[in-house]
Specification:
Chain lengths: 382, 342, 161
């Protein structure tokens, strides 16, 4: 305690000052603690400290002894994109068990996963704006996110943590008006993207705040295993939905938006931001195609196995969540529950590259960088 | 007896004169905080406060005030107690004292001094000192950074503010704001426009733009709200304050916003002059027009706040030293030339 | 060169058969087991060889193999150039769990190795900053070991229910 109290006197006369950003700070997106070493307002070093939200996901998965009981806990990792987390886990389990999933289930999964991607990006974009002082876009985007959550509530009964997908199927069939609801959402949402661009993306102050800030070169991005919008912001066309297709993503026609350094340097915060905005449109395209192709009839639970017991073996399955590559490394020893589950969370990896891209910037840029890599602490700490 | 009366008379006059602006500030602050939340609500597609008091939640600020009055006054262990306690009051005093030379209507001005503008600029400089005092005395690093930012910002932006005020003073030829206002009476420009300075000289429009940007920064409003930017510095120099002391800071901020808007109105928009010449003129209407125009500028400030993101500290300084100050001095010369020629 | 089997043979040619095995489970993906001693050289070779170009370390997981009394690390690497994936494993005995750090090859390994150290208790040689990451700095034991017993009190606070 004593050196916390006397830290000012100890630092007196030194040029540098250490300051704690978080765990209770308005824009660290949860309980992240960053130790900043400052020279004036310039950051000379940053040490992220995590673990405040550690909920023993991996230990739980080993102890519970039932593969299906892990699913609700995957929801709680990245709680703003729960559908994508489930999608990754059930895909991994289906590959382990070598199950063929019915068409209708795959289509519904893709639709809800893409809706979830939109919802998650809306939150990420909105919170990014909020970090930079633009309050209003955040609430506009939340209005839209609300519509998605309403559809999810109809579908699964929950608004945030759905527990909707099961190994081999879905918890229950979608309601009758699902297709019209989704089509209605897609129709009303498209003009909002333009509104967002007018209000935030091409705002002069916003561009000045984000362009040339936190530049992540392609080489560094690979070395730190960046993925998702962070990697694409650096100009790399890499999207697991295209490069290592899972589910039925290979049937859809969509583009991979990448950063191009339009407003500043390639791989800066604005590039990472705009990739997310452009992905909204691509997700809408996937949803539209999936709505057209989705079979109207079919039992969504028919392929679900009564008893889940994969043969001994192991697998690493990666899927593209809104934040990047989510990998599940599952080891089975031919029992009812997994021997080991490791979740490779994209936010965890992205947070580790924070130090590499934020030194030499100002405090205000730190906020922009943390916002632009869009971390969710639930996933970092698991 | 007569000696006593001789003291009581002027003393009560001073008291009354002091209470008039205070009443205006307090009523305005309660209304403005509620109004800002309503405006923010409407801009953001929501309702804002709408429960307390029935009609559109008009009593929300009063309820908040009562809550703040009851809150514990927390002083950090290692804070410098006297300065910590004193800073909010000093800040409010600084902006309150400046109201003395604001001509609220043709019939009322707190103090008819000849160096009114000079007095105002001098007194509002105390704001900077109180912000540093509060931030440094808190013994919190975020507060310290906030107050240092604030000091740099306010000292820098005083230069373009003063330069643009000076431009108007050149045109008016007086430092007394009452005289400045009286010069703007009548509707002679193009036969119908009021004689406001903003219409008198095209370069004064540029002066007003510079002035408005500078007062946004002086009053810590978005996009220049860096001293208290909540998403970066938690709450800047106010981080450690709670309860009534924090409320004093808020009050001072809102008072400052009104003060600078009223100064702008006096200098550019004819003060208490009616826009329709003799129609709806007179001391009472004068007060109405004056406050109406002032509040209009305040609403524009709020509108900007809920629309734009925030600048970064180096960009803020660049705007001031790189753009506004040169522009304001060039403009000063242009205005002076115009006045000489026409 | 994409298939694990091909890569395995290529590796043997380079590093000899000593300690390098190709293994498959009853289901799932195959993996290559490599000896702890020269894991760093192998990784560097995998990253830099012009035919392999495994430029991304996707995942690094610590595993406790209770039945073999061994601790292990699984590396999942990815080549964005060749669109290839590969899993590699290293196993070390419980008593002396030391594995060379690959942090100097892929920076992302830094935090993954810290996690493996925290959760399973593997020591990574030459890691620049080997501290606990998810649990508290003075936490006792490594939670993901199969024989882990949770400490009853942490700084005087009961940890159980």
């Amino acid at each position: 305690m004593n050196d916390i109290m006397n830290i000012t006197t100890k630092e007196a006369g030194k040029r540098e000052m250490t300051i704690n950003m978080g765990p209770q700070h308005p824009s660290t997106h949860g309980v992240l603690r960053l130790e900043l070493v400052l020279d004036g307002e310039i950051i000379t070093d940053v040490r992220p400290n995590i673990g405040y939200l550690h909920r023993c996901f991996e230990k739980y998965a080993e102890e519970v002894g039932d593969y299906s009981k892990v699913i609700p806990y995957t929801d709680r990792m990245d709680y703003v994109s729960a559908m994508n987390q489930e999608h990754g886990y059930v895909t991994a389990m289906e590959r382990m068990l070598e199950i063929e999933v019915p068409e209708r289930v795959e289509y519904i999964r893709v639709i809800v996963a893409e809706m979830q991607r939109i919802a998650s990006h809306l939150l990420g974009i909105g919170a990014f704006g909020l970090d930079l002082g633009a309050f209003t876009p955040f609430l506009y985007l939340f209005t839209e996110r609300e519509k998605i959550l309403n559809i999810f509530e109809k579908v699964s009964g929950a608004r945030l943590l759905y527990n909707y997908m099961t190994v081999g199927g879905l918890m229950r069939d979608v309601p009758e008006d699902f297709k019209t609801d989704v089509a209605e959402f897609v129709k009303t949402f498209r003009p909002k993207i333009k509104e967002l661009n007018d209000l935030l993306s091409y705002n002069k102050i916003f561009i000045q705040r984000t362009a040339d800030v936190g530049v992540l070169p392609e080489k560094v991005a690979f070395n730190y295993a960046a993925s998702g919008p962070v990697l694409r912001g650096s100009g790399v066309k890499w999207d697991l939905r295209k490069n290592d297709p899972y589910s039925i993503y290979d049937r859809f026609d969509f583009e991979i938006p990448v950063g191009s350094g339009e407003m500043g340097t390639l791989g800066d915060s604005w590039d990472r931001y705009i990739v997310r905005v452009r992905e909204l449109e691509q997700s809408l395209r996937i949803i539209e195609q999936a709505l057209d192709g989705m079979p109207d009839e079919g039992d969504v639970t028919e392929a679900a196995p009564k008893r889940i017991r994969p043969k001994a073996g192991e697998m690493y399955v990666r899927t593209e969540t809104p934040r990047g590559e989510l990998g599940y490394y599952i080891i089975s020893d031919n029992k009812g529950g997994p021997y080991r589950v490791k979740a490779r969370a994209p936010s965890f990896v992205h947070l580790s590259l924070l130090r590499a891209i934020s030194r030499g910037h100002l405090i205000a840029d730190m906020i922009a960088i943390v916002g632009s890599i869009d971390i969710v602490l639930g996933e970092v700490d698991r | 007896m007569s000696e006593l009366l001789g003291i009581i008379g002027p003393a009560s006059a001073i008291l009354v004169h002091a209470l008039i602006p205070l009443t205006i500030i307090l009523v305005y602050a309660l209304a403005a905080i509620w109004g800002e939340r309503k405006i923010a609500g409407f801009i953001q597609d929501r309702l804002g406060p709408h429960r307390v008091g029935g009609w559109h939640g008009w009593a929300q600020s009063i309820a908040d005030l009562l809550k703040l009055l009851q809150k514990e006054d927390i002083i950090p262990t290692d804070a410098s107690r006297f300065l910590y306690k004193f800073a909010p009051f000093m800040m409010f005093t600084a902006s309150y004292a400046a109201f003395a030379i604001i001509p609220f209507s043709s019939g009322y001005i707190g103090s008819m001094i000849n160096i009114g503008v000079f007095y105002l600029l001098a007194v509002t400089s105390l704001l900077t000192i109180s912000v540093i005092m509060g931030g440094w005395a808190s013994n919190n690093k975020w507060s310290l950074i906030g107050s240092m930012r604030s000091a740099a910002q306010m000292v820098s932006y005083e230069v373009p503010t003063i330069a643009s005020v000076l431009t108007v003073v050149i045109v008016a030829g007086s430092l007394n704001l009452m005289t400045v206002t009286e010069l703007q009476s009548g509707n002679d420009i193009l036969g119908f426009l009021p004689n406001w300075f903003i219409f008198q000289n095209p370069f004064l429009i540029i002066t007003f733009i510079i002035f408005f940007i500078s007062i946004l920064a002086e009053a810590h409003r978005v996009p220049f709200d860096l001293p208290e930017s909540e998403s970066e510095l938690v709450a800047g120099y106010q981080t450690e304050y709670s309860g009534m002391r924090w409320a004093m800071f808020m009050l001072a901020e809102y008072a400052d916003m009104l003060l600078l808007s009223l100064l702008g109105v006096t200098l550019f928009f004819g003060g208490w002059n009616s826009p329709f010449g003799e129609f709806m003129a007179g001391p009472i209407w004068g007060f109405f027009w004056f406050m109406g125009k002032g509040l209009f500028l305040v609403v524009i400030m709020m509108w900007i706040r809920w629309t734009l993101p925030r600048y970064r500290v180096d960009q803020l300084m660049h705007i001031c030293w790189g753009i506004l100050i040169p522009a304001s001095f060039v403009n000063l010369i242009l205005v002076a030339l115009w006045e000489v020629i026409f | 060169m994409k298939e694990p089997k091909e890569i395995f043979e290529y590796l043997i040619k380079e590093f000899g058969e000593d300690g390098i095995h190709f293994e498959t489970g009853d289901t799932g993906e195959p993996w290559i087991e490599v000896p702890a001693g020269n894991v760093k050289e192998i990784m560097k070779f995998l990253r830099d060889d012009f035919q392999l170009k495994f430029n991304v370390l996707m995942c690094l997981s610590g595993v406790h193999y209770a039945s073999e009394a061994a601790l292990g690390v699984t590396y999942h690497i990815n080549s964005t150039v060749n669109s290839a994936k590969l899993a590699l494993k290293v196993k070390v005995p419980e008593e002396d769990p030391v594995i060379p750090s690959v942090e100097s090859i892929w920076k992302t390994a830094n935090w993954h190795e810290r996690e493996a150290y925290d959760m399973v208790g593997i020591h990574f040689k030459n890691h620049p900053d080997l501290r606990r990451i998810l649990t508290a700095e003075d936490w006792e034991g490594h939670p993901l070991r199969k024989d882990y017993v949770q400490q009853e009190f942490y700084q005087g606070i009961p940890t159980g229910e």
